[in-house]
Amino acid sequence: MEAVPARARGYVACVALLAVLCVLRLPAIRTPWWALALLAALYAACEHVVRRRLSGTCTFYPVLLAGAFLLPPPAAALVPLPAALLARVEQRPGWPRRVWRAAQPSLAVWAAARVHWGLGGRDAVVRCDFPYALVPAGAAVLAFCLVLAALDGGILAAAEHVPVRRAWRGLLSRSLAPVAVHGLAGLMMAVLWRSPYGPVAALLVLLPMCVSCWVFAQYHRERAAHQATIRALVQAVDIKDGYTRGHSERVGQASVMIARELRMDDERVEVLRFAGILHDVGKLGVPTRLLRKDGALTPEERRIIELHPEYGHEMVRGISFLGEARTAILHHHERLDGSGYPYGLAGGQIPECARVVAVADAFDAMTSTRTYSRARPVEAAVTELERCAGTQFDPRMVSALVRALDRHGWHPAVTADETPRGLPPQQPVAGSRSGTPR
Q1: Transmembrane region positions (predicted)?
Q2: CATH at residue 248
Q3: Mean pLDDT along residues 38-67
Q4: Are 40 and 79 contacting, i.e. CB atoms less than 8 angstroms apart?
């Protein structure tokens, strides 16, 4: 996002003002300035390594949390400042982003230090009083996560106009576990810092954390490579079949909505997203003239198009990270009554992931305008899905989509480059033309 909306700039200014208020009492308290300077320099160095060498895929919180365990709250709030002021800002304008990078962690560290000191954590760290030291440290980590999640949700709502509840959804649960690990490392740093061995021994804690960040970065690089592979395949399909541009992404979105409504675990939800996005990748093997033909298809042309699930399966069978998404690509045109293709599977023979994608595919096809059919209203598409539940579609998947639509809504879009003129009347379910799903 190049431009920062006025709402977001105002939000950042308010957060920065709160951060300034947190450090106002600094002159009135006894502050170990050498420890503050050392922790601030150490955090700036770690952030530089993480952002430059590890592609900025993780944030190095142990030093921040060690500062919360060692310093008074106003002093701890200053630890992130040098890293934020010295870091390079890629996007412009840079000042609101730089201020945000300074103010957000400052508030989070201040809150963590306040909770830690309020629960007597400082004395527990000095005495190495375990396991009691874990109680104030755990409370401090929770406060740190709460502040980060609250501020992240707020900036997302202000900058991207995301509804507040949706902006905050899942932020705390996703961050709690990794930050807890960083908090444990920060506590170990603080204890060693206060030990007879001093700050040098505390630095030893950073070595395994650096290794873990490197492993995390490698995972994210691999994940980015997966995403790039999928994007390339989807773009190739969109170029070949421009009339359904955007269809793949929306089927992926609808598949995720169904999967979450069925309370599938996060790993399966991600697999179903891949399945929805890539379900039509086999169209790369179908002649372009057939995909873009305006008139009715001949029986021979229909048979050629009906080969696209098998083509797609062959294309992705060697991509191991897709998992059961490959099965969904192969079977998403099977029907519950056995009249589908390519193998005429029926009922429970059809893999669950394929039954999810089949409903998502049909729903988006009906609610999108194409050269051979106008978009139906969402209500009409739902009615058609419910009418075909039990024969063409799995009733459980249809019900899950209906519940998800009631909860989140749906915003269909025209997928063709231009709105077609002279469209024929509505076609059969699944956006079919002469009975051939597209």
Answers
A1: 6-26, 33-51, 63-87, 137-159, 171-193, 199-217
A2: 1.10.3210.10
A3: 76
A4: yes
